[in-house]
Amino acid sequence: MGLGLAAVGRPGYINLGRDRDLPAERTVEALRARTHALLDAAYARGVRYLDAARSYGRSEEFLADWLRARPDVRDVVVGSKWGYTYTAGWTTDAERHEVKDHGTATYERQRAETEALLGDRLDLYQIHSVTPDSPALTDRELHARLAGAAVRGLTIGFSTSGPAQAEAIRAALAVTVDGTPLFRTVQSTFNVLETSAGPALAEAHEAGLTVLVKEGMANGRLAAPEAPAPLAAVAEETGAGPDAVALAFVLRQPWAGVVLSGAATTVQLTSNLRAAAVELTEEQTARLAALSEDPAAYWAHRSRLPWH
């Protein structure tokens, strides 16, 4: 399992319950301290993949500070993403919190910004939220620049979002530079409510890509007290929390390489990480799979979640 910093790198995000999880005064220093506490707890519990993004507020900065303060920590894999620019100005009520652009100019600017913070600690750089119509799938100049970064030792990947994730994944698998596949990783949304990307993620795994799974908790919809009744029932049977059961469902997928916790508190993180010890029966797994929603409905619901 890995730790994603989307929920703690900026004061506003769409996760449910965030008003309870974080202090009312979400200063930069308060969220820096929260991020460092989560990173300490995650590392102590064996987490070795850490996930940030240019649009996650100051997540790269907080992560870079943590790494500098712990020079002996050399066994983590650090990933970040480019393609969205954070525009909320450290507020929770901005009209727009992030702006998407997959052009080469944005790549060069954000790559320089990421390098200034994380330097050679960055291992994986992903295009943020590729959709089937993204110019990042067809821009040969961009592909050449990404391939150049790969030659210099950076792993290149992409993440997906939206109801057509499977289509985006399959299109990205076809992107090559001089006959060599460009992408080494894919990070997609997959959870008991949104399973539509599963077959394409299996294809990506078969093609040799590492699959990272985000939003396994459906932005808090699968945590208590919001968890659907069938999920809560399975949690009762296993003795684990609904969050751990939801993440165990994802971990059970044979193609899942890294499953991210998006915890905002160390208590949540501890509960999330119990997923690795939850053993689901075939019957329980089937009950959870039956919760799957139509992807268009799922993503429409997600788009209506407020920025807390």
TrEMBL record:
Query: PANTHER family in the record, alphabetically?
Result: D-THREO-ALDOSE 1-DEHYDROGENASE, NADP-DEPENDENT OXIDOREDUCTASE DOMAIN-CONTAINING PROTEIN
Q: Using the record's annotation, list all stretches that form the NADP-dependent oxidoreductase domain.
A: 36-292
Q: Name the Gene3D superfamilies on file.
A: NADP-dependent oxidoreductase domain (3.20.20.100)
Spell out the InterPro entries in the cross-references: AKR2_Oxidoreductase, NAD(P)_OxRdtase_dom_sf, NADP_OxRdtase_dom
Provide the protein name. Answer: Aldo/keto reductase
**Organism of origin:** Streptomyces griseoaurantiacus
- Report the superkingdom from the record: Bacteria
